[in-house]
Specification:
It is a single chain. The chain is mainly α. The protein has one domain: Arc Repressor Mutant, subunit A (Orthogonal Bundle), CATH 1.10.10. The protein is built from 6 helices and 3 strands, in the order αβααββααα. The chain has a 3-stranded antiparallel sheet with strand order 1-3-2.
Length: 103
């Protein structure tokens, strides 16, 4: 295995390994893997700057999106545990305040 994934191999299953090999994922695949509903996932992907559009195809860069998730870990945990609408309002207020999520 390349990189550092081998250090955590005892915690990974086949789904994790297949997902780790992908550089770009669709909204549907990302939502299923991260356990986040589609609407908040789309907003977070756009806020992080991880969205790439090729014609009608929309892909999320895993590397950029996961950096964003690590930076906003507290908010993401609330998303998974609590109400999606509450979290969306928190993200919208951060964006309105002018916080940049560009890399």
């Amino acid at each position: 295995m390349s990189g550092c994934i081998w250090k955590y191999s005892q915690y990974l299953d086949d789904e994790d390994i297949v997902f780790a090999q992908k550089r770009f994922v669709t909204y549907k695949l990302a939502g299923e893997y991260y356990g986040i509903n589609q609407k908040p996932l789309i907003r977070m992907a756009w806020a992080s700057g991880a969205v790439y559009k090729i014609g009608k195809k929309v892909l999320i860069s895993r590397k950029i999106f996961e950096e964003y998730l690590r930076e906003n870990q507290r908010i993401v945990n609330e998303l998974i545990d609590e109400d999606d609408e509450k979290l969306l309002k928190a993200f919208e207020s951060r964006v309105k305040e002018g916080e940049s999520y560009e890399y």
